[in-house]
Design brief:
By secondary structure, the chain is of the alpha/beta class. Helices cover 37% and strands 19% of the residues. It contains 16 helices and 16 strands.
Length: 453
């Protein structure tokens, strides 16, 4: 028996507290590569980052512990798409001044005494930036999905969700009490069939019509690097009079000419999207999230969404960070820095993706996505690739089971506007060297990206 199994007191009638079915993966897979995950860092997540080195061997129950040394690495793992996580701009001064004025926390939920003039100003600014009538902000991105979806749908309603939607969406859908159906990833044709069949069949057992149907998708899928086929999804939505909920966690600020996300990128009417959700944790280098929609919907969420009623409000300093970034993106700060960062990010994404493809790596996703997954496929190679990159001062993130299928492990690269062309060229050289050592350059002669059907 494993150590965990011996610790469980079966004889006194206790049921297992942990899921023992997962022990095989934890013991024989995760523990062998535990050093790839949860790597502690020191300092801000800029273009370069200090990785805290660790010693230990979890396979033999010797836990990993920091040994006191730091390794300065090129950062290819953080969601700092526009580079605003750096602390050398006027934005940092604005945040410090806000903390001095409002303090570090509101110490109360929004619906009680946690709302300040800064929060309301941020909500108006976000709604104007996205192009919707009203907005509500939350202090946690994950909770923005998981606590608002149950306020929008309930028993008798139907949610139709993309198979690869984020865990926060999954939790929100399951918590709502509504029925749930899924459609093939980013496949409008299959979505059309699922919606049509659901309308024809009606609710289970009674076959009564659904109260409402909500289609839930993402602007950019963070594990796949794929951009939503928004135009086609909207056609299905309008054809069957469904509601559309779009999660823009990775697309807002990262794509579109002015950084306004998937709607601007796809060139669609913002009114065709009923609920616009996004987070401030990526392009805005802050925390929290938002929902943008019609005023009556937002007012409903203020009264019913768990994060509005019971969760503490966003820290004022974090709110100021978002306000200052939006001022930069819209040019209201008078510097043009936001437009420069958007162009830099787009150039970096194209350069790095094309460089990886020309060197024979299997790269999936869309050309303009700042998330660039490089397929490892063989689980044993992910540990070698990550460790060899770290030895060469390049920090990468490995995405593997259970976040992906067991045999679809990948290196998930996040490119930033903070990266210079020299940074990316050095990273490509390291990837080429390590890719040869790990036999990952599967497609040396191809000049084209291999994408999944």
């Amino acid at each position: 028996k494993s150590k965990l199994e011996n610790e469980i007191d079966y004889e006194n009638g206790y049921a297992p507290l942990c899921n023992l079915n997962n022990l095989f993966f934890v013991k024989w897979s995760y523990r062998r590569v535990e050093d790839l995950f949860n790597r502690p860092v020191s300092g801000l997540p800029g273009a370069h980052i200090d990785v805290m080195m660790r010693q230990g061997d979890p396979m033999y129950n010797i836990p990993l512990k920091p040994d006191g040394t730091l390794k300065r690495c090129l950062n290819l793992g953080s969601y700092n798409y526009l580079g605003f996580a750096e602390n050398d701009t006027k934005i940092t001064d604005d945040v410090i001044a806000t903390v001095q004025k409002y303090g570090t926390s509101g110490c109360s939920p929004r619906i009680q005494t946690g709302t300040t003039d800064l929060h309301r100003n941020l909500e108006r600014t976000v709604a104007d930036f996205v192009g919707k009538e009203e907005a509500i902000i939350f202090s946690m991105g994950y909770a923005t999905n998981s606590t608002t979806i149950p306020s929008l749908v309930s028993k008798g309603d139907l949610i139709i969700s993309d198979t690869l939607n984020h865990a926060s969406i999954v939790v929100g859908c399951r918590s709502s009490g509504a029925s749930i159906k899924v459609f093939k990833h980013n496949d409008p044709v299959h979505l059309d069939k699922v919606v049509r069949d659901a309308i024809c069949e009606g609710q289970p057992r009674t076959h009564l019509p659904w109260g409402k149907i909500l289609i839930v998708v993402e602007g950019i899928y963070s594990m796949e690097g794929e951009i939503l086929k928004l135009r086609e999804i909207i056609e299905v939505k309008k054809k069957y009079n469904c509601y559309l909920y779009v999660d823009e966690a990775h697309s807002i600020g990262a794509i579109g000419k002015t950084g306004r996300g998937i709607s601007e990128y796809a060139g669609v009417n913002i009114d065709d999207i009923d609920i616009m959700m996004g987070t401030f944790t990526k392009s805005f280098a802050s925390v929290g999230g938002y929902i943008c929609s019609h005023k009556h919907i937002i007012n409903h969420l203020r009264r019913t969404a768990f994060s509005s009623v019971d969760e503490f409000s966003m820290a004022p300093g974090c709110g100021q960070q978002v306000l200052s970034v939006i001022e930069s993106l819209t040019g209201r700060d008078g510097t043009g820095d936001g437009a420069r960062r958007l162009k830099q990010l787009a150039d970096n994404v194209r350069f790095f993706r094309q460089g990886l493809t020309k060197r024979g790596f299997v790269v999936i996703g869309d050309d303009d996505s700042p998330v660039i997954p490089v397929m490892v496929i063989v689980p044993a190679k992910m540990s070698a690739f990550s460790r060899l990159c770290l030895e060469r001062n390049v920090a990468v993130v490995i995405a593997s089971y259970p976040a992906t299928d067991l045999l679809l492990s990948r290196v998930r690269i996040c490119v930033s506007a903070g990266h210079t062309r020299k940074d990316l060229e050095e990273a490509l050289d390291v990837f080429t060297e390590v890719g040869d050592m790990c036999l990952l350059r599967y497609n040396k002669d191809s000049q084209y990206i291999i994408t999944r059907d």
